[in-house]
Structures are given as structure tokens and as C-alpha cells.
Write a structure and sequence with these properties.
This protein has 188 residues and is of the alpha/beta class. The longest helix has 14 residues. It contains 7 helices and 7 strands; from the N terminus they run H-E-H-E-H-H-E-H-E-H-E-H-E-E. Strands 3-2-1-4-5-7-6 form a 7-stranded mixed beta sheet, sandwiched between helices. Helix 6 runs parallel beside helix 7. It is globular and about 40 Å long. The chain has one domain: 3-Layer(aba) Sandwich (Rossmann fold).
Length: 188
């Protein structure tokens, strides 16, 4: 019997080493730790508002009212800041506590070698992230989207948004494995 493949690990192994990257949707920082350990980025932006999203649309998400409170979100942020304190002081990790589209304004165009998109999974949220971070990604850079599948509360939001991006012809599929899809930026 074959062991199951950890597709998030496979996505991590595809990230360039000693590069500049961003993770959108940090949550409690577990995947962020793996990015630092495996990709050893020169600089990594950790982007998350750690904000409770009210309303029925987001109620079942990690940041919705059935799973969290604002106090829990604040505690998650504090945990991530404490976890990466040494890297923050060294300048290799920068936490941007903001909505992802607002955080994009703090990153220079053509600065990123990779971006891992795992924030708001709604069609509108993923589309906004892809639009905001496309200019931040260098030509040849890697865009990896998590949860490229039909989901629970987000339904087909990730799939539709990523497919729309692919259809524009500026990205080529590098790989698709499980719920991970990686796209290589072809043009500026």
C-alpha cells in the first residue's frame, strides 16, 4: 500500500530557496514555519488580518463566528509574532497584519519570487488576491494556490478564480497535485 502524498509539502519543495516570498493567510503559522524551514527565504511576508469576519458566508471558515472570536484572532497573531520573533528581528520575516489587498500596497512590484495564496477562499477574495499580487510577482515567479478544489463554505471560489487567471494567458500551470496548484508567471 502506498503512503499518501502530502501535497502541501510537495508545493513547499517547489518554492525557490533563498528567495523573497509571501504567504497570504497565515492562521496560526504552522505552514509559515515549514516555508521558513524548507525554502529558507531571504525574506518572507506573512500576511493576515487576524480579523473576525462576521456574516453567514464566512461563519464556518477559520476566521468566522462559529470557529473564532476577535480575542482568538488576536491570540493567533500574538502567537505568530512570538514564533517568528528571531526572524523578525533579523529582517527575514515581516508580518503584515492587514487585509491582503491592503498589504499588497506595502510590497514593491516585481519583488516576490513566490506567493502562496491561502486567504479568503471566496471567488471575490481569491480574485482580489490574484489581482493584487500578480504585479508583485516577478516574471518566472511561482504562484501557488491552496485548496484548489470544490470546498465547503467557499464552494468553487478558488477553482473559478484560478481558472480565470489561467485563461488570461499570463501564467502557465507548473503542477497540479491534490488541492495544490502552482502557476509560473510568464509575462508582466
Amino acid at each position: 500500500m502506498l503512503a499518501p502524498i502530502d501535497t502541501r509539502l510537495m508545493a513547499l519543495l517547489s518554492l525557490p530557496r533563498n528567495a523573497v516570498g509571501a504567504e497570504i493567510g497565515v492562521h496560526e503559522g504552522a505552514f509559515s514555519r515549514e516555508i521558513v524551514r524548507i525554502a529558507q527565504p531571504k525574506r518572507l511576508y506573512l500576511i493576515d488580518p487576524w480579523l473576525l469576519f462576521p456574516g453567514e458566508t464566512y461563519a464556518d471558515s477559520w476566521y468566522g463566528t462559529r470557529r473564532a472570536t476577535q480575542d482568538i484572532m488576536d491570540a493567533r497573531h500574538a502567537h505568530v509574532a512570538a514564533t517568528f520573533q528571531r526572524q523578525i528581528e533579523a529582517g527575514s520575516v515581516r508580518i503584515l497584519r492587514a487585509l491582503s489587498v491592503d498589504a499588497a500596497l506595502m510590497i514593491a512590484d516585481d519583488e516576490l519570487d513566490f506567493v502562496y495564496v491561502d486567504g479568503d477562499h471566496s471567488y471575490e477574495g481569491v480574485t482580489a488576491d490574484l489581482s493584487a499580487y500578480g504585479p508583485k510577482l516577478k516574471v518566472g515567479g511561482l504562484l501557488v494556490a491552496d485548496d484548489y478544489m470544490l470546498g465547503s463554505w467557499w464552494k468553487d471560489g478558488v477553482v473559478r478564480a484560478v481558472n480565470d487567471l489561467i485563461g488570461r494567458g499570463q501564467y502557465a500551470i507548473e503542477f497540479k497535485m491534490g488541492s495544490q496548484i502552482a502557476l509560473r508567471k510568464l509575462t508582466g
